[in-house]
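Suppose a colleague, Dr. K., hands you the sequence of a protein chain of 243 amino acids and asks what its three-dimensional shape might be. Before reaching for any lab equipment, you can write down a predicted structure in token form. Begin with the sequence itself:
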Amino acid sequence: MYNTRVKSKNKTEKRLVIKEECQSLHYHNGKPGALALTALASFPGSGSSWFRHLIHQLTGIYTGSVNNTKEGHTSDEFQADGVTNNSVIAIETNEKSFNVGTVKFERTILLVRDPFVSILADFNRRNEVSHIVQDWESYAQVQSYAWQFFMRYWLEFSSVGPLLVVEYENLGTQLEMELLRLAKFLNVAVDQRVLHCILKNANGRFGSTPSQTQNSPYSRKVQDILIKGKNDIYGELHKLKNI
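The predicted structure, expressed as tokens, is then:
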């Protein structure tokens, strides 16, 4: 039974080191409604803090979040946690809801990360910030289904409004292309100086992806659930025109 920090025998993901800020951040202070209310939907452990940093540097506008815990956020960069209005460029949510309060999101960015990585990352994060130790095997099994339900729920947003799917792994292999897709979706102009700065600072950010089977901390039962679920979800993702 695993009941402490669980590690993969593969190389672990490298931590973000900010060499320089590419532009200062501000709240949007234009006309009410000038920014579409945008959800940034991500399953826990999907790398949303790093992705929000990229959005900040690309747009110069803060992102908000549905929760105001500021858990793990010690930088002023995330001072808008808890802000859920049009003063922020996007609102992070780990919930299954197309609404924030009584207001419906107008568009959604869905951040998708390999569930083998995200579930393990979130388990370790939870055990680092909480005094309550969880059982790894039961947690992994529950979350393997939760990941699938979350993804299927937010994929349905495509029938409600504009949906942009961003695969976390693509941020490591084709960052410039992903940033340009993001800018187009958010309807923001791209400053080439800022873009160059972001790309320069991103060097070395991404580590290897843990193996699904060899030296995996997942039991065979959970691996089978995840492999099938991952294949089904990614099959649906790649049917969308914007991926």
